[in-house]
Write a structure and sequence with these properties.
Blueprint: E1 9-13, E2 35-37, H1 48-51, E3 58-60, E4 81-83, E5 106-108, E6 129-131, H2 143-147, E7 153-155, E8 176-178, E9 200-202, E10 225-227, H3 238-241, E11 248-250, E12 271-273, E13 294-296, E14 319-321, E15 342-344, E16 365-367, E17 390-391, E18 394-395, H4 398-404, H5 416-459, H6 464-488, H7 508-511, E19 520-527, E20 530-533, E21 540-542, E22 546-554, E23 561-569, H8 575-592, E24 599-602, H9 608-612, E25 619-621, E26 640-645, E27 651-655, E28 667-672, E29 675-680, H10 686-703, E30 709-713, H11 721-727, E31 756-759, E32 761-762, E33 767-769, E34 790-794, E35 799-803, H12 809-825, E36 834-838, H13 844-847, E37 882-883, H14 897-910, E38 911-920, E39 923-926, E40 934-936, E41 940-950, H15 956-968, H16 970-977, H17 982-985, H18 988-993, E42 996-1006, H19 1014-1019, H20 1022-1030, E43 1037-1043, H21 1049-1053, E44 1060-1062, E45 1080-1086, E46 1093-1098, E47 1110-1119, E48 1122-1131, H22 1137-1149, E49 1156-1161, H23 1168-1173, E50 1191-1196, E51 1202-1206, E52 1221-1225, E53 1229-1234, H24 1240-1261, E54 1266-1271, H25 1277-1280
Parallel strand pairs: 1-2, 1-33, 2-3, 3-4, 4-5, 5-6, 6-7, 7-8, 8-9, 9-10, 10-11, 11-12, 12-13, 13-14, 14-15, 15-16, 21-25, 23-24, 29-30, 35-36, 37-51, 40-44, 42-43, 44-46, 48-49, 53-54
Antiparallel strand pairs: 17-18, 19-20, 19-22, 22-23, 26-27, 26-28, 28-29, 31-34, 32-33, 34-35, 38-39, 38-41, 41-42, 45-46, 45-47, 47-48, 50-51, 50-52, 52-53
Amino acid sequence: MSAGVLPFLRAIDFTKNNFKDDFPVAVENMTSLTWLRANKTHLSEVPDSLTKLNKLEDLILSRNEIKELPQEITEMAGLRSLNLRHNKLQKEGIPYSLFDLEELTTLDFSHNNLDSCPENLHRAKALLVLNVAHNRIREVPPSLFTQLKYMQHLDLSNNLIEYIPPQIRRLQQLKSLNISYNPLQHDQFRSLSGLVQLESLNIAHTQRGINNIPSEFDKLVSLTEIDLSYNKLTRVPEPVYRLENLKRANFSHNEISEMSSLTECWTELITLNLTENKLSEIPACICKLTKLKRLYLNGNKITFEGVPSLIGKLQNLEVFMAARNNMTCVPDSLCKCSNLRQMDLSANQLVALPASIWELKQLKNLNTDDNPNLVMPEKPPPEVKGSGAEFYNVDFSLYNQRKVAGLKPSAETMPQKDKEAERKKLRARLRIKQAQLKEEEGGKQDSNKFLKGLSEYKEDSGSVSTYLSSRARLNQNDNQDEERKEIRNKKWTDALTKPALDYTELFPEVVNGSVGQEEGLYMWRIDNFLPLLLDDAVGRFYEADCYIILHASQRENLPGLLYDIHFWIGAKCEIDKKACAAIHAVHLRNMLGCDNRTTREEQGDESDEFILYFDGDIEVLEGGSESGFFQVEETIYIKRLFKCHGQNNILLEPVETHVDSIDHRHSYLLDDGMDIVVWFGKLSKLTQNKKTTLFAEKINKLERKNKATITVITKYETEKQHIFFSMLNGDPTSIKDPTVGKIEDYEDSYSVPTPKLYEVHLGVGYLELPQLEFSVNRPMTQQMLRTQRVYLLDTYTDVFVWVGAHSDRLLRAAAAKLSGEILKMITRPATAIVNTCFEGVESALFRSFFHKWDDIVAVDFTRAADKVIAPSSTEGKEEMKVDLTALFIKREPPMSPADCTEYREQWKENLETMSCFVMEGKNYTRLPAGEQGHFYTENCYIFLCTYWMFISDFNDDLLEQYVILQKKQSTGKKKNEDGYGEGEGGGSDEEEEEEEALVCRVYFWQGRDASKVCWPQYSLSSFRAKIREKIGSKMPVEDERCFQQQESVKFLSYFNGKFIIHKGKRPGNNDPETPQPRPRLYQVRQNGNILAQRCVEVGCSSLLLNSGFCYILKVPAEKDGDMCYILYVWIGSRSSEELMNASIDIGKEAFDDVDTVSVLYEGTNEPDIFWSALGGRRQYDNQADWMDVIRLFRCSNERGYFAVSEKCSDFCQDDLSDEDVMILDSGTDVFVWIGEESSDVERKLALKSAQLYQQHIQDLSGEARKLSIVRRGKENLKFIKLFHGWGPFRARTKNSS
């Protein structure tokens, strides 16, 4: 092991390892170690291997169980610092010769069992720091102060010392002295005045009074910190006031009743603690301490008048603690301390606080508890976040959202900056168009001039002088054109800009003159992206290589050489070689200054000139050099088995991949590369199962690129158990049965080992391995990992090497070797391995050890605000994904009456039979024929409908049933084929042409007020089982559950428009009491088309009438002493003809228990009995034009992002989901309906969406619509009238959400 990296290790931190049984032997090989920490390692003695480290300088073994030090420790000549705090050391266990170490400068024996100072301690003359606090020391020998002249820090606190020798004044280098919590005698501090270098003095709890503080204290001119707490001071001693350099002063838990005006002398003071004294006021001079940051006044008697009015001058004040005082109010000047971050005013007598308290922007913590009469000032309204277009980092401008929806934004909605950009584009197009027109006009003028010249020439054709002069002009123009042509036709190389490259690394032979200076042929082969010069330029090529060929020949009658450059491409070469051959050929041409082009030669298609270079003999061989690209090797995965532990903080423990590792108390994850199996034990917890499944998905996403196959085996899937156990090469029967024995035998005794995060430091010839500190309050997070560093994460079960993207190469190599040494250094499970993780592609197991390092699940916006911790600000966040496209899509046009009639007739024609049953308790009663089409809101109905359906339209379930039935009938078909009758079996040709089959669909209709257990009761009933048994043996069967007013139009068509919904429970023969007859009002309405027509009972009030609809009023009356009913069909003056005819048909045909039927047209003197039954004639709506424009939108986050979707036109009250927010457009109003379980995010984004929809509608039609907010259960009449058959919401249960 010594041949590894351990001899180069200079520092290592073993904190929180368990070395109770054995200490790592490998430490002996760390011969260069100078710093070692082994805190909390359960050591009971100093290991022998540590005493052999001759170069060790700092040894830290705190918080262990060490009782004595070995004699060998005195031989560590280089030891400078020894820290053994929080152990069980005794005086007898410390070797006398330890203090003879000449290099020993720091000694910490605090929190041990010392009853006196160790013998010969005074011989450690180089000692600078001595800490023996929290022991039982009673006496300090004077020699300690006379010999240790260079002592700088001395801590004797929390002992039993009564006397401090006066020789302490000889410690002229002392900077810090702590003798607090000792029973010191009355007069002990006169000698302290000689410590002129002292900076920190702690004499708390030492029985000090105003009379035993020496007057020479002001000689401690270097003192910056003093602690006189827990004494008996009635005032601050005057010498202390004269300590002008004081920065921190603690006078808490004394009897101080006043502060002197000399307080202003502490001009450097930062912290002043006067807690638990008897002060009634704060001296005004304290306002001159402009550097004061922390002021503690808890537990005094300070009143409102005792707070100086000029306290606002303390602009650096950050902490003001004044709990348990007598203040009734706080002066407004205190709120001028703009840097205040923490203020405690609890347990006072506060009545009010100044309103300016809210102006303290830096204030993070304000405590006003135990002030029963306090009335907090009204908080000013916060700045409205999202008052503009931006809200939750979403641009809600109409221009942007129309653009996202794919619509052309209008000019009015375009932002100013976009308008300017659009104008610039238009101006640019205009300039181009004008230039084109001008060019066309110039061409026309030239052609006109040419025609005019021809005509003039014809007229002057006899004039020779004219001809000659024109000829001369033409020649002159030709000469000018030739000159211009020469200027334009330069060489193509003149237009090239040659790059300023250093060709030394590419063609060093050409640079030094050994190649290309004489006539001849030269060849280079492309190797690892660079040209490699070949020794002999022969015609031998490899088909997987590329070559560059330079032919240098003497110019004819000219000095210098003529260069011809070719690059040859093999038929099987890689693309990197092809590219590099072409590029480097150009580089060679630029380097030689050639004017000609480079020539590409491909295998099998070489030019004659190229072949002549090799005397016509070219040989192509198989093979070639490797590509310069890295070759992707197939990843080799190690099969590993993980056990899931815990309930709240769940972790995975690697265990041995064997069946003996399995027990039913846990869930397991078996990772076998591209096959991941999740297995649940019979007694495993649900939280563990979910965690294990989620972990498998993380592994698949992060490490397998979503290509692995995940198999989840639950305790109920016995047929899959062989998959898991075959991969373990074991038998499931060998696992202990959880039903046998005590449950305690299966308790989870696994204790999660604390992970240790090391940071690898690399220096000149040495390595260091310090630990990063973290705790429960400061957990290990991803932010601790810096990209320039390399870290080792030791989880006991595994060792991870995390490599930063910008880390040094040598650092990576050192960390790789160190990880192997760390793995072997302590005893670990046999399954422990070293895992290497690179920044950005860390494994799921590595990420699980870090707090909140999870990029699988995003923020769940589907939950309510009290269940999700929402971010405090949207600044710096990515823009939230939203989908508002539905708001900009036009309303779907209704189906025409002709098409509706055609669909209805077709569906009725396909219907073979329909059997109707009503569910009453646990019984299923066949519905009388007269009651078909009548439904009651407190009942459930079952309809068995058989109809013809195309086989191609079958879903998977129907198709599977159909195939099974066909197989069962195959026996009968076979008999027909064998001659048992032609017509009985069917004839195969006729069956092949058949495209339809009978199907039974069982509709389960549930009323709005029916019990919620009806559907589960039906699903488990024998009635459903009989249906499946009898009908299922003949045809495929499927169930369809439909709710009141949410039925499909196909189901509605079976009732031919006579679909009537009554309130209450269906009257039966066994009812003990017959309900009292009462008037009933029904509204007949068609939502979107005539197929969605229903007659629904509404409240019996004339307020609910509307001229756009038809109504049926059923009024009880007496005739000849018997009860009868009078039926009125009220036709609204603005109702459609289809609705009017349908309403009359319903009134005359659907109600069998009426005596007379009267048709009343609105405004034709309706009888008084009609209005009295409706509670009197009252004002009602006279139009329903909103039926043509009404739209209902749903706003939800259930997809993981905010989206708006539109409900169909046939909506009802039950479409208002309590978990969402709805937007309802009535043509004149836009209602925002808020469900009780909707989240804050949904509510705010829905309101912004409604405002955006308002703008969109106004931009299209010019009509402004009023925006109203409606909450569940508090809907107004205007909103209710928009729904067909509105009723009270069903009472919500605790688990209804």
